[in-house]
Amino acid sequence: MHPQLERVTRRIIERSRQSRSDYLQQIEAAAVAGPVRDQISCTNLAHTYAASSDDEKLILKQDHRAANIAIVSAYNDMLSAHAPYRTYPEQIKQALAGTGHVAQMAGGVPAMCDGVTQGQTGMELSLFSRDVIALSTAVALSHQVFDGSLLLGICDKIVPGLLMAALRFGHMPAIFVPAGPMPSGISNGEKAKVRQDYAAGNVGRDELLASEMASYHTQGTCTFYGTANSNQMLVEIMGLQLPGSSFINPSDPLRPALTAFAARQVTGMTHLTSGFMPMGQMFDERTIVNGIVGLLATGGSTNHSIHLIAIARMAGIIIDWQDMADLSDVVPLLARVYPNGKEDINAFQRAGGMSFIMRELAQAGLLHTDVNTVMGKGLDAYFKEPFLTDDGGVEWRSGGSESLNLDVLAPAHAPFMREGGMKLVEGNLGRAVMKVSAVPDDRWVVEAPAKVFCDQNDVLAAYKNDELNQDVIVVLKGQGPGANGMPELHKLTPALTNLQEAGYQVALVTDGRLSGASGKVPAAIHVCPEATQGGPLAKVKDGDLIRLDGHAGTLSVLSEAFDQRPDEVFEAPPSYGVGRELFYGFRQRVTAAEEGAVSIGWE
After folding, report:
1. Could you tell me the end-to-end alpha-carbon distance of the chain, in angstroms, rounded to an integer?
2. What is the model's pLDDT at position 44?
3. Residues 54, 515: Cα–Cα separation, whole Å
4. How far is CA 411 from the centre of its chain?
5. What are the structural domain ranges in the chain?
6. Assigned fold of 422-573
């Protein structure tokens, strides 16, 4: 094992000793107390069984070894990634028919699409939707008549929310069930070029819409490597879903076979069997370190620098940005998937996919291989690829040992970068995250005067008025979780990219988020403390000379006068409309980005 991996893991274990111990005691007590089907009243049970088929009623009533599996689904047919889930509950029930086990659709969770709300007012609900999903999942599982769960979710805040709740119900096993990415449409380069042309005013709305619809064209996850596909990578590398299941297209015959396998697999993990493996025990400090390593090695979404902290906390594990930065120093970048490269997630899968990534990391001593997973002890199954058998089942076989496309997947001994795709930067502006996997090396350092804004639409207006045609660091403050819910600011990417390609030194500094699809423009994001909490970002003024240095890990205003200015607190404007007023309480109690931006809890 790489010594840095060992050091960081040991540090997390020590830091989390008390909170993890408390958590394990809680789930042990819950496991002893339940499931309570045999202990609750006949009236309660009658309500549980009422809508079931006669066969299911007979199983649940008479067979005390039968597992009742909760299905929690994020299905809606507005999200291309989640539309395939419409038929999954029935697929799962059919897979369990004849096995002596039962599944029930326990509840649905909201699933908003960041692709729809990007740059719109509704994006201010996006981050908090993660916590709403966690609460909704808790409601679904609160009936206490289930022995395990299958979690149907893919996209941005949905997987983190489902996992947060599953860990609070950590006395039960759970498996994530993906649906896969859509087949490739037009190239990502073509799509990005049209977006930039539209931002520059060179093409109209009709041309832009035609381009976007040629990219996002059918059911399945969007094919770029944003937060949704980073989610899939994470739950697989953490052993929470089946090996090789992340990036099989929805129409592939292997997809329903994997779904059926997952349904049967979770029944063998319940307290009713000798293979009992509850989620809270399976997910430990080594699991979360493996997740961080995977994120860095693939250049995944910066959103997970927030989500992973929140997820870990639900299992009594305390991680921070320094842990991620220290791992980034030694984890090589092994994947180039748009926006970090030209090809999409389907090309990643064809080149060798997750089994290649996990084998390379393990051989380099950069994965804990002795973890528990939904396939049992260890990661051996995750170094293989799933195949459809003649009888419609699934078997895992050893895949190729080499990348089939060196422009997409690189071996650990010859990586795209010797370091991971994420940096921690800090200085007199606070602490921030910088994603460098898609940023050319010669743009890791930007020193330029600030242009200060409080609204992303004002940035775009200044761009259209030619007010940004210079070396510039765009400072966008008042975008943190306590201000307006921390919306993604991907809408700025085409304009800032155009400025960069015009030859200017350009960067973005913000207490907000960028999309998981953020690309070539250097950016210091998630700045903490945020401006509404009196962070130094609040007192930055136009013309302040700022230096962002991804190599040195610094983010500072260079003027001595800056440090002498009195502290300020940014006053966020009232948030009304599109339901934002309903989230007032979330904004009031949310933690900082570096603490997971969590608005729910029990302390």
Report:
1. 36
2. 83
3. 48
4. 24
5. 3-33+66-183+218-398, 422-573
6. Glucose Oxidase; domain 1 (3.50.30)
